[in-house]
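User: two proteins, same treatment. go.

Assistant:
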Amino acid sequence: MSRIDARLAELGISIPQLAKPVAAYVPATTSGNLVFTAGQLPFVDGALPATGKVGAEVSADDAAGYARICVLNALAAAESVIGSLDRVTRVVKVTGFVASAPDFSGQPAVLNGASTVLGEIFGDIGQHARSAVGVAVLPLDAPVEVELVLEFA
């Protein structure tokens, strides 16, 4: 069992199957020693667990959970191009988009769902730069979308 697989098992986390793109793009690509994931929605078994705006139809706490799911989907995408998450040497950047009700300003707290799970899985190399952006709408009316930049060896 690989180091990351052992850590995932210890945490009770499983990396899902690679989510099928919803348009004309690839889930992840590499350039040099970096892997860039496409924005990942919180698909669970091919379906969104919720739709709508955070701060209206979706609570901030639920959205944080969806951000966590987005990260697991992004890790599946990364694994599909680098073969093993044990090759990750650094989580460089997390960019998160939150479909926000007009008066919602808690985007950073929502994206903590993504950041926290990366720290749980990768430890110190999971510390990263991050952007948390509020937007009017996301694809398929998803509440959250997350993309990653990872360094690998």
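Protein 2:
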Amino acid sequence: MILQRHVLVWTALAAVLAYGLYQLSGVLLPFVAGITLGYLLDPLADRMQRFGLHRLGSTIVILVSFLVALVLLVLILAPILAHQFMAFVDNLPTLAGKLQELIGLGSRYLQHHGGETLKKLGLSDTVSNADIQNSIGSLISQATTYVLGLLRSLWFGGQALYGLFSLLVVTPVVAFYILLDWKRMIATIDGWVPIEHRLEVRAIARDIDKALAGFVRGQFIVSVFLGLWYGVGLTLVGLNFGFLIGMTGGFLSFIPYVGSLAVMIVSLAVALVQSWPAWDLMAMTFGVVFVGQFLEGNVLSPNLVGASVGLHPVWIIFALLAFGSLFGFTGLIVAVPVAAAAGVVLRFLLRKYLRSELYTGEAEAGVPYPMPRQVKTLA
């Protein structure tokens, strides 16, 4: 009965908290960003304290340095990305038209040289070039509408005009106080935990911290590297809008497979339109993207990220889409941390179940958390 009451109370509290966050999602962005920034910079503040610098001084030095570096980065990259983005939008109808012509040419070639094979597959009817252009045009129109709708939902879902101003003003203030009082807040929350379960909760919290720190910091480094690799590499081989495509792909790399796949498709399509009928630009573009994906999959991610989160990529993609739909851009920030924390808690509960009388038919052994890991991954 006591266990049932505990489960009911904590489930009710979690439901109330989730409902409150959903209702306040429009104003959460600067606070979530500030808390995230403070969490990520806390180990650096601890290291500076070990060298003898006071916590307040460490916080000021770290935040000022971070903000100066961020402003310089924006001042350097923003004009380049904005110029290429406007040029890409202006040239999009031309690119789409040339792509339609090339696809129509490929269809006619296939009809001419592979007619017998198409007849065997039941595809003997000839498709006109106009039909192909209409189909491709409709597809591009639908894709554009979908992307604009997604951006619009993220924009208004986060109340972007208000959110942008508060992000620039409130986030540094929140990050300052979070970084300054981090240890004190953790100690206070630890004091609220029931004494009977304090050791288990601390162990779970350490697992969550390990998962979040390993993934967020590692994936940040991977995304920055891939953005620079794709952007600089595609620019050097002469691809139009290469820096914009590469940096966008690097930013999207925090979603498993999406960033690399987007860079591959968009860069090859632009290279095809730009260099047809020559193939050298396409070959070099493919080489840059392939080497980047090889480095990500075999060198960077295994060493920097590893299996720190313990979540299947499909579960991460679902979390990003679900939280992005519910909370807008704020949801994208908290999706992976929440999914990782939920994964740690659910794995703990699953281990408890596998040791419980309900599963084994015997009385549960009094072994505190962490218990033998019978299940390596969840989801």
